[in-house]
Amino acid sequence: MTEEAKLPQKRYYRQRAHANPFSDHQLDYPVKPEDMDWTKHYPEYYPAKDGQVQKKVEFADIGCGYGGLLISMAKSFPDNLMLGMEIRTKVEDYVYERIKALRIQEPGHYQNVSIMRMNAMKFLPNFFEKGQLTKMFFLFPDPHFKQRKHKARIISPTLLAEYAYALSIGGILYTITDVKDLHEWMVKHLDDHPLFERLSDEECEKDPAVPHVREATEEGKKVARNQGDKYLACYRRIEDPYYKQ
Amino acid sequence: MSLRIPFTTAVHSPSKPEIVLANGKQFIVMNTSTGEVIKPISENERKQEYSELYRAMIFNNDGSLLAATGDDKKINVYDTSNWSLKLSRVAHKRVNSFQFNNDSTEIVIADKFGDVYAHPNKNQEDQKEAEKLEPIVGHVSMVTDMTLSKDEKFIVTSDRDEHIRVSRYPNGYNIENFCLGHSDVVTYIQVFPWDESLLISAGGDNTIRVWEFLKGKEVQSLNIKAYIQPYMAKATDANSEEPMVRKLAIDPTKKLIAIVFAKTNAIVLLEWTSDNKLVYKSTLETSSSVLDACFDLQNRLWVTLAVAEEKDDLFAIFEEKDGKYERLSSDEPLVKQINSVETGLVEKMPDLYTIFGLRKLLDLPDFVQTPPDKARNKNKKRKVEE
């Protein structure tokens, strides 16, 4: 195995779990989605090959951590481009190296997965056009326990408007956490938001992404080892009911 | 030695020849035809501990009401026929920008926390009523300005992260689209009075942009750096190196736009031509830093200035003569009269240019695993020195 194809070792990429999403991290982001150069992320798909429609990112894993979900979903959804966004530098480095190695180890696979270091709370509209995404994942997000930190939570009324903008009608937003308080918070805000409707348990079980959501991440595996509970909640982006009155 | 407080904010009535001028903890009202003071500084409160209580002021559509808000989070509404205080409300956080809706039943505000609320235009019943108000729109970063579309079906908000967001109104949870193009904080947005489908925007990136905002489409970007750079004051830190637009003063009848820059001795005039383009018209020089500017009903541009010495002018007035805007001489009776108006007094002049702080250049990045001996001093933006 060449040097390049060796999987990275996690112990060299440890980083504390919290990063402040409100400070300015000197991130690179395009002024608008049309300006983004995706060729470095998806070299097999950008530019589009002759006769083929240009594919765009459809699945976004917000706060993707060590990339467990994306890596596991890459082969189950080979025709969809998926992107992880992670604000912590070392963690993003790890996932980047991992994807690089996997693309070499298994030619033809993992070309549809990539990661970027980004503050999804602030710059989502810079990357994704209106209704571009069909799935958004919020797996084991930082609970920000203290009351004063509640605005930093990744699910908030402010941010749900932006997520609704990026998701196409019918697109699904997945949340899972082992912190019951956080689960109840997210459910309350999603239930309150007019552009989201909760999926029933049956619908969740039928969704092919749900097993990945439950099992595939580092966090998910840790919770299983500790025999904790996992609270899943899935929502569909719907039309604005305001105009139906 | 007491210093005169200059007029930091100036707004003109849409219906009467009257201008309202913020002066620390008070405001005065002046007749713009005669220069006569209608509402003077209260004599027993002349000496002030400076506080910008009238950071933002706005008239309603017919000029019958004036709303004012500042550092104390209060929104005061005045009856402009006699300048009595009609009602007072308390906002959750300090208000950055606000406006009345078309029929003056609501005051829509955008606060420094990033939230937009629609306050009913009446006295607050009690604390509970204030707390029940839910935000209509929320940005993650500070909202710098906001404006409603003429038909009030949309609300446009700008923020520190270069975004201009167009949301439905009052269902602000539904984002229509974004106007993305600016590369620095956006400090001012306004729908054109003569074309309600177009939005003009400005901020820290040296461009004035025009948008078909409902489509999120940029129709023009005009770089104005060359017109103003020679007049800028020396920069005191990275944030104040590039010109920063504080606001645009718009004259609806002549279709003129006057650009007010922070800490600069000039105003750039633009014109909206008959083939729907913004073009540079001229640069108007002043004797000291411009604080604010607005057009009166006779298309004259009233400019308020920062004053350092006793002899410095508080105002400059520019009037059109043979197609060009020229400064009225200090000897003109009107100019003489207004420059001798009584202002509040302070011992020490406060920082009048905190707007530079909206840039992010001095915000240091989050270093997560820095060894203690190499740890940088993780602090705070330096204040812009006078």
TrEMBL record, chain A:
The keyword RNA-binding applies. It comes from the Eukaryota. Its main location: nucleus. PROSITE patterns: SAM_MT_TRMB. The active site is at 142. S-adenosyl-L-methionine binds at residues 63, 86-87, 119-120, 139, 217-219. It is found in: Nucleus. This is tRNA (guanine-N(7)-)-methyltransferase. It comes from Circinella minor. The lineage of its organism: Eukaryota, Fungi, Fungi incertae sedis, Mucoromycota, Mucoromycotina. The gene is TRM8.
Automatic annotation (TrEMBL), chain B:
PROSITE patterns: WD_REPEATS_2, WD_REPEATS_REGION. It is found in: Nucleus. One of its GO terms (cellular component) is tRNA methyltransferase complex. It comes from Circinella minor. Required for the formation of N(7)-methylguanine at position 46 (m7G46) in tRNA. In the complex, it is required to stabilize and induce conformational changes of the catalytic subunit. Signal peptide: none annotated. The lineage of its organism: Eukaryota, Fungi, Fungi incertae sedis, Mucoromycota, Mucoromycotina. Belongs to the WD repeat TRM82 family. HAMAP family: TRM82. This is tRNA (guanine-N(7)-)-methyltransferase non-catalytic subunit TRM82. Pathway: tRNA modification; N(7)-methylguanine-tRNA biosynthesis. Gene3D superfamilies: YVTN repeat-like/Quinoprotein amine dehydrogenase. InterPro entries: Trm82 (IPR028884), WD40/YVTN_repeat-like_dom_sf (IPR015943), WD40_repeat_dom_sf (IPR036322), WD40_rpt (IPR001680). Keywords: Nucleus, Repeat, tRNA processing, WD repeat. WD repeats lie at residues 179-221. Pfam families: WD40. One of its GO terms (biological process) is tRNA (guanine-N7)-methylation.
